[in-house]
Amino acid sequence: MSSLADLRGRARIRADAVGNNFFTDAEINTYINTALGELHDILVLAFEDYYVSSKEFTTVSGQSNYPFADMTAPLENFYKCLGLDVIDSGETLRVRRFSFQDRNRFSSNILTKGRGEYSDFLYQVRDGSIELIPEPNGESSMKLWYIPSYTVLTGDASVVDSSIMSNWEEYAVIAAVVKMKEKEELSTTAIERELEGLRDRIESAAENRDAGENYGITDELSGAEIGILGR
C-alpha cells in the first residue's frame, strides 16, 4: 500500500514536475484524493463487496426514525446500504426495504406479518437516517450493513485502503497527471487514453472477486440459496 507522499512523488515524476513549484503539494493531494474517490466508486459499482461495514443500534418504542448522527458512536461514513437485520430471541432475521408507496402499509390495526426468514419490520434509507415501519413497540437489536464512504488521505503518511490492489493505485497517479497537464495547458490526449484503458482494466478485474465460487440464486421469501448460476 502506497502513502499519499508516494503517490504524489510518482505523479510529479510522470508529469515531469519534480521540484516544480507551479504545482503545490496540497494541489496534487487534491487531485489524488479525487481520483481515489473515483476508484472507490468503481469498486463499489463492481458489486463485489470490497467495502463492508456494520453498525448496530437498538430501537425505541414509538420511534420510527433513527438518524445516523444520533446513534451510539455516530455513523459518519455511510455511503450505501447493503441490508438490515433484526436480532430477535437469538435469531437474526433479514429486514426488507419498503418503497415510498408502502409508507402507510401498517397504518391500520391489522398488520401484515413477515414470511420465511424475514422480520415484520420494513426499512428505508432516508437523508442520514433509517426509517422503520411499523413503529417499534419495544427494544429490538438492529444491525445495519453498509458500504462506507471514501476516506480522504490527509497526511503524507496516510496509506491507500487495503482493498485497493497495489497496481490499481496507478489510476490515482495518472488521473493527477491529467489535471496537472490541463493546468499547464498541455495536450492530455495520450495520458487520458492511458487512464481510460486503466479504468477499463480495473473494472474488468474487479468483477467476480471470488473466482472459486459461482453466485447462487436466492429465494426472495426465505433468503436461502436455491440454485447456482453458471451450472
Question: What letter string, H or E per element, gives the SSE order?
Answer: HHEEEEEEEHHEE
Number of contiguous helices: 4
Q: How much β-strand is present in the residues?
A: 15-25%
From the spread of the alpha carbons, the general shape counts as elongated
According to DSSP, the number of beta strands is 9
Query: What is the CA-CA span between the terminal residues?
Result: 37 Å
- The percentage helix is 25-40%
Q: Kindly give the count of domains.
A: 2
Class of secondary structure makeup: alpha+beta
Q: If you average the pLDDT, what whole number results?
A: 87
Low-confidence stretches: 108-117
Largest sheet: 7 strands, mixed
Q: What is the gyration radius calculated from CA atoms? A: 23 Å
Strand order of the largest sheet: 1-7-3-4-5-6-2
Would you write up a description of this structure?
There is one protein chain. This protein has helices at residues 4-14, 25-45, 170-183, 189-206, and strands at residues 53-58, 65-67, 78-88, 91-97, 118-126, 129-133, 141-148, 216-218, 225-228. Helices cover 28% and strands 24% of the residues. Helix 1 (4-14) crosses helix 2, helix 2 (25-45) packs across helix 3 (170-183) and helix 3 (170-183) runs antiparallel to helix 4. It folds into two domains: 1-50 and 155-159 and 182-207, no CATH class; 54-148, no CATH class. The chain contains four helices and nine strands. It has a seven-stranded mixed β-sheet, with no helix packed on it. Strands 8-9 form a two-stranded antiparallel sheet. A hairpin with a 2-residue loop joins strand 3 and strand 4.
